[in-house]
Amino acid sequence: MRKERGLLIVLSGPSGVGKGTVRKELFSQPDTNYEYSISMTTRKAREGEVDGVDYFFKEKEAFEQLIEQEKLLEYAQYVGNYYGTPIDYVNETLDAGRDVFLEIEVQGASQIREKAPDGLFIFLAPPSLSELQSRLVGRGTETEDVIATRIEAANKELEMMNLYDYVVENDEVQLACDRINSIVVAEHCRRERVEKQYLAMLKGE
Ligand SMILES: Nc1nc2c(ncn2[C@@H]2O[C@H](COP(=O)(O)OP(=O)(O)O)[C@@H](O)[C@H]2O)c(=O)[nH]1
Ligand SMILES: Nc1ncnc2c1ncn2[C@@H]1O[C@H](COP(=O)(O)OP(=O)(O)O)[C@@H](O)[C@H]1O
Questions:
Q1: Which of 58, 87, 104, 175 is the right S-S partner for 62, CB 3.0 to 4.6 Å?
Q2: Which of 83, 106, 142, 147 to mutate to test the pocket of ligand 1 (most atoms within 8 A of CB)?
Q3: What is the CATH number of domain 8-37+99-202?
Q4: What pLDDT is recorded for position 117?
């Protein structure tokens, strides 16, 4: 029997909704079956961040070279920096039958929807706009101006929610992780059943 290709899982949503927090919690669980795709970025490493673990930190010129060489599955400019997904790692891991998990902003997710529509697209939504604002303020990593810009961007990003296969509310981190895990299990079941049906059809059963 041919090996089933892994699932490309894309988690996206507005800045401050908790994508990074939920992703870290998912990957801290010992039974997580997904491979995390480490992104490239031109933003400077924050204190405690490690090159090759949190991101691959690149200079702008090096990043632009990767774009030219088509080494990125998608990339976006976000608040003055580039962010992108290395394409080789994603393809090799999927080909090996392993699921790949991307945590990216919404422009990048739209590009992937064009290139890999068979991905599983999950939008992480805040319980409310005011809660989103409190999370951005509470994180304390941005100035008031930047927070205002991100809230404005969030309004537009929230409008994109209906393009996603699933919307998961991040009310509580553990609940959001449980919902994501359930969605992935359900999607695997669906794909296996569709594949079985397809093979039966080919055999004329
Ligand atoms: N398009 C795209 N977005 C990414 C990628 N990696 C991270 N991001 C997103 O870029 C945004 C900024 O990330 P970062 O600077 O780490 O800040 P933070 O996630 O808000 O703490 C977040 O929305 C990330 O999800 C990537 O490879 N591609
Ligand atoms: N479910 C939640 N409830 C309360 N606070 C949360 C929750 N998820 C994340 N946060 C907090 O919200 C802030 C933004 O989370 P973060 O993961 O950095 O967001 P993003 O990666 O989407 O920009 C952080 O201070 C984080 O601790």
A1: 58
A2: 83
A3: 3.40.50.300
A4: 87
